[in-house]
Every structure is written in C-alpha cells, then in structure tokens.
C-alpha cells in the first residue's frame, strides 16, 4: 500500500485490540463464513464504521440485499474512505477493499453483476470488519 495511513499500529498492537476472528479478517485478509455475520440481514439505519479504527465507511442507505452471504453495499460513504488493491489470491483477479484510514481488510468489490443499484457495484464486506452506529 502506497497511501499514507492515518492509523498505524504494529501487528502486536492490533492483536491486542482485536479478537481472533477480527484479527484474521481485518489484518490477515481472511473472511468470515457466509451467512454468519452480524450485519448480513440488518436493516437498521446508521453508519457502518471500520471495526479496527472507527473510520466511517458505509451508510445503511447504500446497503442492499444481494443474498451472497455477506453485507453488500453499492458504494462507500465517499471514494476516499477505501483503498482498492488487485487480489489474485484465489487464481482469479478480484479487487480487495481496505479501510483508507488503517489499511484493514474489509472485503471485495465486484462490478457489472446486474444488481438494480445506482452503481452496479457490490461491495461484499465482512460483518466482522464493521461496527454499525445506529441513527439516534
């Protein structure tokens, strides 16, 4: 990553702040099992923040039901909130999405799948990467 991060910690510091699954997903680019995440079917209004650093990433009005097993959004809160990285880890080319503030892995973005959304993008994001702050 060439972008300057706002929140920088050692891997030991992250390990002390995050649970095992959180660390695996956010810091080691892992994934949670499909249909197990806290926010997969959530319809609560609010802002989704990065679980690692608290940066605001997505709004609930950008969330849609894709039935893929993970929370799906059609756009981030703003384009500068996430970093895009080419991911060839599974033998095909995907685009990884990371928090622009701390560099934590969030999930992947897919384009052109035919969803009826304003962008035709699906940000497939791990629930464990997020914290939902409901509208008060």
Task: Walk me through what this model shows.
This protein is mostly beta strands and 136 residues long. It has one domain (11-134): Beta Complex (Metal Binding Protein, Guanine Nucleotide Exchange Factor, Chain A). The protein is built from 2 helices and 9 strands. Strands 3-4-8-7-6-5 form a 6-stranded antiparallel sheet. β1 and β2 (56-59) form a beta hairpin. The radius of gyration is 14 Å and the shape is globular. The N and C termini lie far apart (36 Å).
Features:
136 residues; mainly beta; Metal Binding Protein, Guanine Nucleotide Exchange Factor, Chain A; 6-stranded antiparallel β-sheet; 3-stranded antiparallel β-sheet; 31% strand; globular
User: What proportion strand?
Assistant: 25-35%
Major pleated sheet: 6 strands, antiparallel
CA-CA gap between termini: 36 Å
- What class do helices, strands and sheet pairing give? mainly beta
Q: What is the name of the CATH class?
A: Mainly Beta
Indicate the low-confidence ranges by residue numbers: none
Enumerate the strands of the largest sheet in spatial order, edge to edge or round the barrel.
Answer: 3-4-8-7-6-5
Discrete helix count: 2
CATH topology-level fold name: Metal Binding Protein, Guanine Nucleotide Exchange Factor, Chain A
